Amino acid sequence: MNPAPAANSSLPAALPAVAIELGERFAQRGYELSLVGGPVRDLFLGREAPDLDFTSNANPDQILDAIEGWAEATWDVGREFGTIAMRRGDDQIEITTYRADVYDEDSRKPHVRFGTRLEDDLARRDFTVNSMAIRLPGGELVDPFDGRGDLALGLLRTPSGPEISFSDDPLRMMRGARFVSQLGFEVAAPELAAMESMASRLEIVSAERVRDELSKLLLGAHPDRGIDVMVSTGLADLVLPEVAALRLEKDEHHRHKDVYEHSLTVLRQAAEREGGPEDPVPGPDLVLRLAALMHDIGKPDTRRFESGGAVSFRHHDVVGAKLARKRLKALRFDNDTVKAVARLVELHMRFYGYADAGWSDSAVRRYVTDAGPLLHRLHLLTRSDVTTRNRRKAERLEFAYDDLEARVEELAAQEELDAIRPDLDGGAIMAALGIKPGPLVGRAYSFLLERRLDRGPASEEQALAELRAWWAQQPESAEA
Q: Which residue among 228, 320, 325, 349 sits deepest, i.e. has the most Cβ atoms within 10 Å of its Cβ?
């Protein structure tokens, strides 16, 4: 966005030039136009808004008439709700007619009713920090609910009573948790109480919209804080019940740590370990953060109290992977994300065998092969899983993982470990054994892959000898 001077000294130093230009077009045609919501909030916070949202007393037909020949592309998929989307240069823009909707008690879908006053439109928005507008082209700030004051306090309040606001759109409760994550704000006490008492109303919102809001929360700067709001208010009981269940009831001797607090710490540490655009895991990374949050969700189902007061969670990694897969599917995450998160949860304990006893080259190869393209995320997840306050233990685990990563790099340099394949391909297997394509070729391929993992690369002659020795032990060899 190219900045243009703001007309009102109480506003930020600059407004987007495209906003001034668009405001002049609407004013020339006798329509009101205001920059509204998140872009206004972000101007005061010094953040760059990815999209520009405007509101106007013009109806959709009049909006289209005003932007004809100015917008480079338009979309009217939101026309039913009064929204026209467009693009000019690098700017993505939406203009929505003033709204004064009415909602059914048991439905998220409003009866769309267009309004006539900017102030009435602002009253129906989610939080006061998003209920500010800048009239264009003049630049007058309209802030009937003191959103700027709440910005200074870092506070999330609803412009109308929270019970009314959250009943109208239950997803606003999750949006509050998302703003805690993205902006580092706090939810005001009345709004927190309303979220707690009204959490069940989130049931009427589609899984896809809940998923999108959860993803935005997890990709924020403080995802652990946003998740904590969801858990403390009961929203997570509906969205991520497995995470809420991590608040295990402590035994009377307090001999195992708080799994829920541990999981929030792992989530925070994983986000902190993400890299820049050129790093193997550039942040923010949704797969890594989901895996960090859910890595221990198998513990409630596997908790056992052993003799002497010890607590065990045997196979919680395997159980957790199944639970993660089921929950993410219910939230309509795509298959690639579901598979990746479940695999990371399943593998997150694998390293501890190395820390305890060290591994052979074969075991290191299997670790890399099992992780596949998730290896770098697994590195970050495993390192983030160390939350002990025992300094000596933490240093021992850090040293062990440094050693494992060094071994991985050494073997990768020797063997191109990230693309391990058998020493013979399918065609060579069929030629050597005189067999046709089918399951038998797959069995032979798996055998050679296992041998490759066990002893590293071999010459073609050695691989053929091993293959023929294996073939001699197979019942099909007698039939060939």
A: 320
Burial (CB < 10 A; 0-12, 13-18, 19+), residue 13, is exposed
Q: What is the mean pLDDT of residues 100-126?
A: 71
Query: CA–CA separation, 336 vs 290, rounded Å?
Result: 13
Given the DSSP bridges, would you call strands 140-142 and 155-156 parallel, antiparallel or unpaired? unpaired
The residue written with tokens 């994300």 in the block is 337
Over residues 356-364, the mean pLDDT reads 76
The strand pairing partners of 5, in sequence order, are: 14
CA 38 to CA 35: how far, in whole Å? 9
Residues present in the chain in total: 480
pTM score: 0.80
Both tokens of 354, joined, read: 């190395």
d(CA 348, CA 324): 13
